[in-house]
Amino acid sequence: MAAGETIVFDDMSKRFGAVHAVSDLTFTVEPGRVTGFLGPNGAGKSTSLRVLLGLVNPSTGTATIGGARYATLRDPVRRVGAALEATFHPGRSARAHLSSVAVAGGIPRARVGEVLELVGATPYADRRVGGYSLGMRQRLALATALLGDPGVLVLDEPINGLDPEGIRWIRGLLRSLAAEGRTVLLSSHLLSEVQQTVDDVVVIAGGRLRYTGPLAGLGTGPVTIVDAPDRPALAAALQGAGFALRVDAGDLVVDADPADVGRVAQAAGVALRELRQRSGGLEDEFLALVGQELPPPPPPGSTPIPGEAPR
Amino acid sequence: MTGFGRAVASEFVKLFSTRMWWLLLLILVGYVGLAAAGIALALTLAPEQSGMTIPPGALAAVVYSVATASGFVFPVILGAMSVTGEVRHRTLSTTFLATPHRAPVLAAKVVVAAVAGAGYGVAASLATVGLGALVLGSSGEPTALDESDTWAMIARMVLAMAIWAMLGVGLGVLVPSQVGSIVAILAFTQFVEPIVRTAAAFVEPLGGVAKFLPGAAGDALVGASFYTALGPSAQTLEWWQGGLVLAGYAVAFLVAGAATFWRRDVT
C-alpha cells in the first residue's frame, strides 16, 4: 500500500469563459482521515477535483498531492485512486475495463480479480456495463480507484445511487481505508449522506470556500431539546448553570449536550418530560453556510401549473 | 514496460474488449469480397457494358484493389472511434488518470490504429484476391497471382489501410463528436471526393487538384482503382507520392487535433 499524502489546494481559481467556477480555494486534506467535500450541486466540487487530478487546468493557483501536481506523478494509479463520474463504455465488461486501467497503470492483472471481489462486483464482472444499475457502476468506479492500492483516494459523489446496504458498506470501507493511514477525500451534496463517515469537512458554495475543519466545528455544538412539566423551573435551572436556551417551534432548545442538561435538571430537582439530542443541527448549519433555502411555498389560491391535475 | 508501452497495451485491451472491431471487420470483408466478385463478373462477362476501359493486363489489379478503393472507409472509422468513442462514453477521464501525459496516449492510439488498419488490409485483401481470383480464373482471365507486381500491390494495400486508420485517429481528435466525425467521413468519402474526382477525369484543370485529395492519394499509393480505369485523362501521383500525401493528411489532422481538442479541459 502506498502511504497517505497530503492534498493541498492553494489559492486555486478556475474560470470557464466568463463563469467563475471556483474562486481562491485554499484548504488542506490530511492523511488518516476521511474528509467530506461538501456543497450544493454546481458549487464547483467536481471542477475542483478535476483540477486536482490534472484533467482541468486551473486559471490560477495550484492543487497538489504530496506536494506534486498529478500530471507529474510517476505512477499515478499506484499513488492516487480516483472515481469521478462512474461512466464506462457500455459495450465493455467490468473486468475488461479494469484490465485496461491496470495495463495502463502498470498494475498486475491479478489485482483486477481482487478489486472486483473487494467491491462485490465479481458476479457481474463479465457482463457488459451497459446493463448495470447506477449502484453497480458506482462499485465499479470504486474498484477502479482501488486498483493501484493507492494512499490517496479522491471520490466524486461515491455514495450517490447506492442502496442502503451499499451505503453502509462504503461507509465502513472508507473508515477502514482512512484508519490504514490513507487520505480519503469524497464529495457529496448532502451532509447527511456523509455525516457518519467523515472526520473533516470542506464546505464550498458558489465556487468559494465556506468552511474547512473538523465536522464537529461545523455546527455550534450539540443541541438538546428538553421539557419538563414545570418548564419555568427547568429554564431557571439551566440559565443558572450558564446554558443558552431558546424556544424554537414550541420546543425548549439548549445549546448543550443532553447528558449535561440532564445533570443540571437532576441537581435542581426538576422532573423531566423530554430529553433528546436534536438531529439535523449540523444540517441546519450546513444549509446556512451554503445559503440554500427551500423555495417558498406557492401562495394560497395561486394558479396551478398548466397540465397539472387540480387539487 | 515504459509508460508509452503501457499506453499502447491499454489501447489494445480497449480495442479488443468491445464488439466494434470485429463487426466492422465482418462488414468490410463481406462488402469488398462481394464487390470484387461482382466487378470481376461484370468486367469478364460484359466488358463493353461496364463503361470502363481497362488497360490490358490490369483487370486483376482493378478487381483486387477494391479492398482499398471501397474498403478504406472502415479503418478510418475504426481509428476515429478510438477517440470519439471515449468522448461519447465519457471515458477520457479514466484514460488520462491512468496516463496523465496526453501526447503518449494519442501516439498509442495511432500505433494501435496502424496495426489494426494493417490487419483490416490483410483481411480485405484476402477477400478481394480470394473471391476475385476465383471469378477471374473460372472465366479464363489471368489472375496475375504469379506476378510479383500483384503481391507488391497487395503489400501497398495493407500499408494504405494502416495509414487510413491513423488518418482516422487524426480525424477523430479533430472532430471529437462521434456523429459529427462519422457524418464528415461518409459525406467526404462517399459524396464530395467521388464527385470531384469524377469531374476531374473530364475537366483537365481540376485534375491537378483532385490528385491530391486523400482518396486519390490512397489510390495512387495502391496503384489501381476504378478511377484509374475511368479514362487515361485521370491524373495520378506516383505510388510513393500518394503514400506521402495520405500520411501528410494523417499528420496534419493529428497535429491540429493535438493542439486543440486533445489539450482541452476534460469536464
In short:
The complex is a heterodimer of chains A (311) and B (267). With 311 residues, chain A is α/β, with parallel strands linked by helices.
Mean pLDDT of chain B equals: 91
Oligomer: heterodimer
Order of helices and strands of chain B: HHHHHHHHHHHHH
The total strand number of chain A stands at 13
Taking strands numbered 1, 2, ... along the chain, how are they ordered across the largest sheet of chain A?
Answer: 5-6-7-3-8-9
Can you give a write-up of this model?
By secondary structure, chain A is an alpha/beta fold. Chain A has helices spanning 45-52, 76-79, 94-105, 110-118, 134-146, 164-179, 191-194, 231-240, 258-268, 281-290, and strands spanning 7-16, 19-29, 34-38, 60-65, 80-83, 152-156, 183-188, 200-205, 208-214, 224-227, 245-248, 251-254, 274-277. In chain A, helix 4 packs across helix 5. Chain B is mainly α and 267 residues long. In chain B, helix 8 (148-174) runs parallel beside helix 13 and helix 9 runs antiparallel to helix 10. The radius of gyration of chain B is 19 Å and the shape is globular. The two termini of chain B are 30 Å apart. The interface between A and B is medium-sized, with 35 and 28 residues.
Overview features:
heterodimer; A: 311 residues; alpha/beta; Rossmann fold; Alpha-Beta Plaits; six-stranded mixed β-sheet; four-stranded antiparallel β-sheet; 10 helices; 24% strand; disordered C terminus; B: 267 residues; mainly alpha
Topology:
The complex is a heterodimer of chains A (311) and B (267).
Chain A: E1 7-16, E2 19-29, E3 34-38, H1 45-52, E4 60-65, H2 76-79, E5 80-83, H3 94-105, H4 110-118, H5 134-146, E6 152-156, H6 164-179, E7 183-188, H7 191-194, E8 200-205, E9 208-214, E10 224-227, H8 231-240, E11 245-248, E12 251-254, H9 258-268, E13 274-277, H10 281-290
Parallel strand pairs in A: 3-7, 3-8, 5-6, 6-7
Antiparallel strand pairs in A: 1-2, 1-4, 8-9, 10-12, 10-13, 11-12
Helix pairs in contact in A: 3-4, 4-5, 8-9
Chain B: H1 3-16, H2 20-45, H3 59-64, H4 66-69, H5 73-88, H6 92-98, H7 102-138, H8 148-174, H9 178-200, H10 204-210, H11 214-222, H12 226-230, H13 239-259
Helix pairs in contact in B: 1-7, 2-7, 5-7, 5-8, 5-9, 7-8, 8-13, 9-10, 11-13
